[in-house]
Design brief:
alpha+beta, 57% helix
Length: 214
């Protein structure tokens, strides 16, 4: 009986091996192909290329946005853009004209929200692939991705919002993180205003016209 069971097990194992052999051959070929691709790419790979690309992207972003927006991105890592030309979200329309805004993150959805209440409205997923050659990749440098979204919102907000994949808040970005970022933005704006007021107080007052009676 034991001999028969052993013989049956050996037959089953042999059959399983025959069936699975093409699968393992295919996996081995895929592994070899990936290794060859990595080796081919590594021959011309420059480890500092991404860093230099991001530095150029930051310089371009700085030259396009205003001082407040650049300071916001430099200090906080995201940009705020006020909504304007697109169709107003239902939640904002219910509040009769209350302005809405967007937060732009690198390689994350654009988040629409109500600044007065901090209420999150929607996430808008858009992608801008890197078309540069010969090193084009699916991802732009972080600052280029932010700039592309900023330009799209500024240039044709309605088209961007209509073509984006819209989701409710929390689909890809944790709402708690967005709320923390809104709090950080409020703190940043108050500190910036305080510095501006302090600088204004420190400036010498411009001389007025001379008194004709003196």
């Amino acid at each position: 009986m034991a001999v028969a069971l052993c013989a049956t097990s050996l037959v089953v194992l042999a059959l399983l091996w025959e069936v699975s052999l093409p699968f393992w051959d295919r996996k081995l070929e895929e592994r070899r192909a990936r290794k060859a691709a990595r080796e081919a790419a590594g021959a011309d790979y420059d480890p500092g290329r991404e860093r230099r690309a991001e530095q150029r992207a930051r310089e371009l972003l700085k030259s396009c946005v205003n001082d407040e927006e650049w300071g916001m991105y430099r200090d906080l890592g995201f940009l705020r853009v006020w909504g304007g030309s697109a169709e107003v979200p239902d939640e904002a329309r219910e509040l009769r004209g209350v302005p809405y805004a967007y937060l732009i993150y690198p390689h994350k959805p654009i988040v629409a929200y109500l600044p007065q209440t901090g209420r999150l409205l929607n996430e808008y997923c858009v992608e801008f692939p890197d078309e540069t050659r010969p090193y084009g990749s699916p991802r732009l440098p972080d600052s280029d991705d932010v700039l592309a979204k900023w330009m799209a919102l500024k240039g044709d907000e309605r088209r961007l919002i209509n073509e984006a994949n819209m989701h409710l808040p929390g689909r890809q970005i944790d709402p708690r993180q967005v709320q923390r970022d809104l709090w950080r933005l409020g703190q940043w704006e108050r500190e910036r205003l305080a510095r501006a007021n302090q600088a204004a107080k420190g400036r010498p007052r411009a001389a007025g016209p001379a008194d004709p009676t003196s």
